[in-house]
Amino acid sequence: MLSAGTEIRSKLPKVGTTIFTKMSKLAEEYKAINLSQGFPEFDCSPGLQILMDRYVRSGKNQYAPMAGVMALREAISKKTYAATGVEYHPESEITITSGASEALYVAISVAVHPGDEVIVFEPAYDSYVPAIELNGGIPVYVTLDPLYDGIDWDVVATRFSAKTKAVIINTPHNPTGKLWTESDLQKLGELTTKHDVAVISDEVYEHIIFDGRSHVSASAIPSLANRTFVCGSFGKTFHITGWKVGYCLAPKEISAEFRKIHQYLVFSVNTPAQFALAEYLFEPEHYLGLSAFYEKKRNLFINSINDIGFEIKPSEGSFFQNVSYHHLSGEHDLYLAERLTREAGVASIPLSSFYNEAVDYKVLRFCFAKNDDTLLKGAEMLHNVKW
Ligand code: PMP
Ligand code: GLN
What we know:
Blueprint: H1 19-29, E1 33-34, H2 46-57, H3 70-84, E2 94-97, H4 99-111, E3 117-122, H5 128-134, E4 138-143, H6 153-158, E5 164-170, H7 182-195, E6 198-202, H8 222-225, E7 228-233, E8 246-249, H9 252-265, H10 271-280, H11 285-288, H12 290-305, E9 311-312, E10 320-324, H13 333-344, E11 346-347, E12 349-350, E13 363-367, H14 372-382
Parallel strand pairs: 1-11, 3-4, 3-5, 5-6, 6-7
Antiparallel strand pairs: 2-8, 7-8, 9-10, 10-13, 12-13
Bound molecules: 4'-deoxy-4'-aminopyridoxal-5'-phosphate (PMP) and glutamine (GLN).
4'-deoxy-4'-aminopyridoxal-5'-phosphate binds next to helix 4.
């Protein structure tokens, strides 16, 4: 029974408030510079605001079609084709979701039944494992060092069993800023084909890639495309994390199953935002310049903390930079992140929060989706830390 005053039998007994909420709150409390939770400090473009305003004023304010506004699905289909040469049919293979969060949750719900195993590469974004567990699944981890160089595919192969039903991947990766190479994806394609399992590919940072590298989408690898849910989001691409509009690309039969759950979870997604995004996507410049924009910020941040003594490998993509402080202190990353917020006035995210067993590699994650002044001020304050 569930009633006030009785003990609730939790489906997520180990879960508390997310580290992002916790660190943002601490930053606010200590008036610290918030380089913790990943969201842009700057606003979305005036052009996009005008479009949103126009669609609200022109009456696009009722439920959108369950699978999404067709103009937006068509625009995503065109954009994906241009990037990967793969065609997802707007009618049957593209579904608009309430952010990538919903896409991930629904994809996991489709693929995972009670007792099924799901391979998760950690450090991992925090929403995957609770979604697996809510569906009765069992996460099986491939644990990587936060500054890892390449994936050991022999180790990955050992994680597959007769119970494995899905693998979750994320490229560009939050929190490490790593990109998966085409060869990584090919290897994953071989293993997932051999074991006949689904792939859930979180690609929300697809347009934030540095140093001339390219994003390789799971959709571009034929052995993966036929078994993959590609989960995307406009939150990161257009500085609109608060709009919560994302999407899922998947083959027709898989999308049909995906929509069965999506329709009862949210039914449909913010209508004027979908119309506005459909129109905004006509101009590829609106997202193709994003890598250069963030690369400058990454460089500014790295250059301004370079003399502190952190070990830094420049992020390859996303808007996160990790720094290792193992030369400077033996402090647990959770305590250090809190101390830096209180004493130095800079909030970050401890990498241990992305590990199932909270492994402490002495690494902090900083979000550089901030104004240059904020990044410079944050860097200056990090120079005052007593080690
Ligand atoms: N996956 C990753 C790796 C993320 O960093 C985020 C951003 N919070 C999400 C999924 C969720 O995206 P959205 O805000 O579109 O739900
Ligand atoms: N994706 C964001 C991050 O990694 C946080 C989103 C959230 O607060 N749930 O910081």
